[in-house]
């Protein structure tokens, strides 16, 4: 269950690239030209090259690290920070090549840890969890500093629409498909797990990243945008940031609310709550909630 949630989160962030550019190309070019550019620019160059490059870098760096550790050329401290170095290297080189760095990092991470050697070497390491907390704190500081408050004053977007968009997206983005299709997903055993996976679909860094791509793409032609493109450029950042904030509030408060309700239920109905708690524990429901919150970053 945890593995499929983690895999879905990474793949979802990386493979959002082609769907984004399909809409952008259709807004600028005729249908035939848009599909053509979408195939050879987005799929063949951005996506396929990102996958191949990420796999190559992940395999190369994994082989180098294992050989260095085998011959005692690298100490434990060097091994611990190696994954961060690989990620920074990929971000820089993918930026120079103009390909999807999110997808490349996802593929490289899978190839890098494919034989589980890196996890076994660093499983007693506290650096990774420390970096996770540090990056989470940095993201929240960045989100607060970059909130586009001035962009919320749009004539064609009433304030209540941001709330409706955020609520509808959080409800219908994942939950209905998983409730319908969970029977054909082997890792999802029952309706409760399907509802859990559908509920926990946090929206975070990747959404802000893609919003920046949209704005940058549209600003390449200043003064030449159509009315619909100009509206898209003006609305994309406030809408996406609103959804991200809503996701943080909804998914971030789930654990405190669950603990509060659990405390109340245990005081009022101790025997009934004990049975429910044991049932949840059997399905690792509580552990899954805690793990899913980590996907906010």
UniProtKB/TrEMBL annotation:
One Pfam short name: Na_H_Exchanger
Broad class of where this protein is predominantly found? membrane
Specify whether Cell division is a keyword of the entry: no
What is the protein's given name? Cation/H+ exchanger transmembrane domain-containing protein
Q: Record the organism.
A: Monosporascus ibericus
As for subcellular location, the record says: Membrane
Which residue range or ranges hold the Cation/H+ exchanger transmembrane domain? 4-256
An example of a GO molecular function for this protein is: sodium:proton antiporter activity
Q: Which residues cross the membrane?
A: 16-36, 43-61, 81-112, 133-150, 162-182, 194-218, 238-258
Per the record, the GO terms for biological process are: proton export across plasma membrane; regulation of membrane potential; sodium ion export across plasma membrane
| Topology with respect to the bilayer | Multi-pass membrane protein
Q: Write down the superkingdom of origin.
A: Eukaryota
């Amino acid at each position: 269950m945890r593995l499929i949630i983690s895999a879905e989160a990474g793949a979802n962030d990386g493979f959002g690239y082609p769907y984004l550019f399909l809409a952008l190309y259709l807004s600028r070019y005729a249908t035939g030209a848009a599909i053509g550019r979408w195939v050879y620019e987005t799929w063949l160059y951005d996506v396929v090259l990102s996958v191949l490059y990420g796999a190559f870098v992940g395999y190369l760096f994994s082989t180098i690290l294992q050989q260095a550790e085998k011959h005692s050329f690298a100490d434990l401290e060097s091994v611990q920070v190696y994954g961060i170095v690989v990620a920074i290297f990929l971000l820089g080189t993918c930026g120079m090549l103009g390909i999807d760095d999110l997808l490349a990092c996802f593929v490289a991470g899978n190839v890098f840890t494919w034989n589980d050697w890196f996890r076994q070497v660093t499983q007693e390491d506290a650096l990774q969890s420390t970096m996770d907390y540090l990056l989470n704190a940095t993201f929240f500081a960045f989100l607060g500093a970059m909130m586009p408050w001035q962009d919320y004053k749009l004539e064609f977007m009433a304030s209540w629409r941001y709330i409706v968009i955020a609520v509808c997206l959080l409800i219908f983005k994942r939950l209905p498909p998983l409730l319908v299709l969970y029977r054909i997903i082997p890792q999802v055993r029952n309706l409760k797990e399907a509802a859990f996976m559908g509920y926990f679909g946090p929206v975070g860094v990747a959404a802000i990243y893609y919003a920046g791509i949209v704005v940058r793409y549209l600003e390449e032609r200043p003064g030449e945008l159509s009315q619909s493109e100009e509206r898209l450029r003006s609305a994309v950042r406030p809408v996406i940031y609103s959804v991200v904030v809503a996701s943080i509030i909804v998914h971030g408060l789930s654990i405190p609310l669950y603990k509060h309700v659990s405390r109340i239920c245990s005081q009022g109905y101790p025997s009934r709550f004990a049975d429910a708690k044991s049932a949840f524990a059997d399905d690792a429901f509580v552990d899954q909630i805690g793990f899913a919150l980590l996907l906010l970053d």
